[in-house]
Amino acid sequence: MLKTAVMVFALAAVLFAALAAPVLEMKPRAGLDFILRNSPTPQKYLIETMPGGVALLDYNRDGLLDIFLVNGGRVTSPMQIPENFDRSDPLYWNRLYRQNKDGTFTDVTKQAGLANAGEGNYGMGVAIGDYDNDGYPDIYVTNYGKNTLYHNNGDGTFTDVTEKAGVAAGGWSVSAGFFDYDNDGKLDLFVTRYMDWDTKHSKTCGGEWHTYCPPEEFPATTSILYHNRGDGSFEDVSQKSGIASKKGRGLGVAFADYDDDGFTDVFVANDGMQQFLFHNNGDGTFKEVGMEAGAALSEDGRRLSGMGVVFQDYDNDGRPDIIVTELPREIYGVYHNEGKGTFSYQSLETGLGMLTSGSSGWGVGLEDFDNDGWKDLFVAQGHVLDNVEQIDPSLHYKELPLLAMNHQGRFERTDPGLTAPVAGRGAAFGDLNNDGWQDVVMTVLGEKPVVLLNPGGKNHWLVVNLRGTRSNRDGLGARVRVNAQTRFATTSGSYSSASDKRLHFGLGSAQTAKVEVDWPSGVHQTLSDVHADQFLDVTEPEKP
Amino acid sequence: MIRALVLLFLAWQSPSPEALQHMQAGAEAEKNRHFDVAIAEYRKVTELEPTLAAGFVSLGQAYLENHDYGGAIVPLKQAVTLSPELRPAHQLLGYALLAEGYAAQAIPHLEKAQDTAALGIAQLETGDFAGAVPNLQAALSQRPNDPDLLYYFGRASGLLSKQSIDTLLAAYPDSARAHQAMAENYYILRQMPQAEKEFLEAIRQRPDIPKLHLELGLVYAGSAQWPKAEEAFRAETKLQPGNAEAAYRLGNALLQQGKTREGRAELIRSDKLQPEMPETLYALGKADSLEGDATAAEKAWKKVIELEQTSRLTAQAHFALAGLYRKQGKADAAQQEMEAFKKLEKTSTPPEAPQQ
After folding, report:
1. Which residues of B touch A (CB under 8 A)?
2. A544 SS3 class
């Protein structure tokens, strides 16, 4: 009798698992016809395998998330010196897609004034932030070449203000992000640069295999920090802030106040070397403390091929943790925030060792996809080398993304929502259809972006939209606690991408929530008995 | 040595005073590295005393010292004809023939001279690897740090091994051992899919061969296929319960999958089988730490440092201790370990370059 009962139970469990609704579903969106043209060549110029970014932003403030996609450029084979990448050709434009009320998209690139990506620029990533606090999100595009800042005019158009703002950078920029490092209410800008590489000094590696070169083949370089003067211009404070004191090979960047001192810190995912954790000293300077804090190397003290990064709290202890995506054989790094400014490496404890040791990760996010109150992990995946299978058949240029559900701090793989592997790169997260369930847009080399919509379920949710008054208008840098969860307000993280600025919380079965906001200005705000299942606008009190 | 023997031989043969005079003049010229003069003087000796073997030996040696190996052969051959038991003549003739590429002809002379080093080299050159290995090994026991001997011994051993494998592959191409040999070769060449295929075939035929499962497990571990690696290592531990490496590998594969408790048990078993194996102790420290036993982890890692002192593993142990102390809030101790780690990082073997 007992045996029969056990068998019936086991069968039911199997059936339930088979019939369980997928967490994400691939849903091609009408009108989203962008193709990420990275232009791979037999010469294997390293830039070809590195783009491209995606941003989710509501540029026209109609309440619907729009999509901005960064394109690569045309690379001749062999490369012309200097290469112009044909960015005036519409095939190689970056694209802005406005979301329509029916969930379709319309390409508004030209009318928005974003068609000019700049000759000599090969596109990489994107950052989103309202740097002039006018209520409209602005767009910063990183390139190999010169970066571009587009000011949102508030009428559906953008103006290239790079020159006036003084944020062109130069070299090879990859990820960037807006944050307010000095809590002056104006968003500053951090730009990672990959390496000291240029088209004249490119080379091919791998002997007979002919592959893209590893990062060690080129000199490291510095990241850039721009301070927002508040008059539409920025000052390059890389030197005086201490950011430029460390040379790295920065690909990803994410922000959070890891030691709870009220100032936002910076984590830079470096490729093929130690990771950087820039502690914000609160006086306009930073100190790189990755080694001392335990967030620089693997468990065995080995260098990592850091690419994407997320800086959020995965175990609901209120402190921001760090997850870094890497190459195969390295397993994605999980740095658990132990408090008191220190981290411990917990890739094995969280189950990521098993899930990621054979994969190459890029864009990454910690989002509560099933609204159970625990942030799940999504990673865009695909190897750097487009011929990696010839070298090692156990590795793959095209991979499925990783979707791992968070079971009280331990991750378990689930169906990622698409069946065919892709060369995933950037990933941005947000609620595209405003149903309270987080969705994903992932860029794919040589192909259209993948839109993964969340079909939803029964759990409750809350989305918090911050409006800073004393703090920066986007509220970036705020710590928001909803019931047992904490999120750090940011659009940055992932890889070369920018996510929805709204903060999403899964509430499980809870129908009300207590919302606490620690604003960058120092103001603490509490809202009690907030009803679940709503988009909640929270405005910073003018007076504390 | 050779010169002393020749002089002894010369005294016994009592040459004419004129020949003796040329002999001494030749020796003096040789001493002053005037080899052309020495050759001329010794030649006169051989002309004056055509049955005096010592004269031909000296002439041959002068040629050798002048790097004229071809010129040395004729007088040295004459010397061994005149005195077949004269070992220095055989030895020098062996050298000259070997230098000129006549290894096979050199061998009987070097055998007579009982010069194991040169004989081993000559045997290596003629493809007699089985003969070369013991001779070179014997020579190495006399001159253990001789770089030439180390090179020739390594080469002879490698070629002997290859010869055996070639014979195996030719005679029994589909045997388990042949598949194992091919698999090991692919493994060295980092051609893992082929290595896996050959190991699997070898195991299919002879699952009882020790180390086969272990080697297959290493293929899987190398590509982070931990469940398969675990299966292979487990099979090896069943086959060889006393094999400490198999237990260590199994323990590590389990750790990688988050099976901490089981992994730790296996690592403890490995440590009992072969105490003080640094790799096991390091992994054991990790397992202890994952299980929350900080005291045991600290002890294991400290033991690694005590055993190894300057290796890459020692650097890792310092790094792990830094993490442990950091977690315990012992900032100073953590900092101290980090400093030790950084110092060793600069001096020990650098970490493997990340694979792209």
Report:
1. 192-193, 223-226, 255-258, 260, 286, 290, 315-316, 318-320, 322-323, 326-327, 329, 334-335, 338, 341-342, 345, 351-356
2. coil
